[in-house]
Design brief:
This protein has a single domain, classed as Hotdog Thioesterase (Thiol Ester Dehydrase, Chain A), CATH 3.10.129.10. About 30% of the residues lie in helices and about 35% in strands. It has 3 helices and 7 strands. It has a 5-stranded antiparallel sheet with strand order 2-4-5-6-3. The protein has a two-stranded parallel ribbon with strand order 1-7. Strand 5 and strand 6 form a beta hairpin. The model has no long low-confidence stretch (mean pLDDT about 95).
Length: about 160
């Protein structure tokens, strides 16, 4: 295991086209489908960071800000912004994109916590997070601030 891993090494972006099987009767994304995509993207980011299998420990509050319409592309982005001894905190943002017009809008975001595990499912240590560029430092600071704000809103 590496002692430190850069934030951008965890950065993951997925795209999904919203098709009829993943919509409600209004032609909009099912919330459970969006949460599924978010969990997968966050899992990939945490595994890239830890270099090991990771399991979802928790997911923070989620607000669906705007709907994703059938035919639009969901862009799911995730990156590690903090760590514990065996845990990894991941920020996940979802945007809807109209591929014909190129317009995008934010639809939701949340914070996930993963735990790195060995082949037996026991927790293992994770690397320290390194932010070696201004962009990485900015992403981490924005995630920490948003996470703190969300925690205060829930109290």
């Amino acid at each position: 295991m590496t002692d430190t891993v850069r934030l951008m090494e965890s950065y993951t972006e997925m795209t999904e086209m919203l098709l009829p099987n993943d919509t409600n009767n209004l032609g909009r994304a099912l919330g459970g489908t969006v949460l599924h995509w978010m969990d997968i993207c966050a899992a990939i980011a945490s595994m890239r960071f830890a270099g090991s299998q990771c399991v979802t420990a928790s997911m923070d509050h989620v607000d669906f800000i705007t709907a994703i319409e059938m035919g639009e592309v969901a862009v799911v982005e995730a990156y590690v912004f903090d760590t514990g001894s065996t845990s990894i905190d991941v920020k996940v943002d979802v945007h809807a994109e109209d591929p014909r017009e190129g317009a995008t809008r934010k639809t939701t975001s949340s914070f996930f916590t993963f735990v790195a595990v060995d082949d037996d499912g026991s927790p293992i240590p994770v690397p320290d997070l390194a932010c070696e560029s201004d962009a990485e430092t900015g992403l981490r600071a924005a995630a920490m601030e948003a996470h703190e704000e969300q925690a205060h809103q829930e109290l």
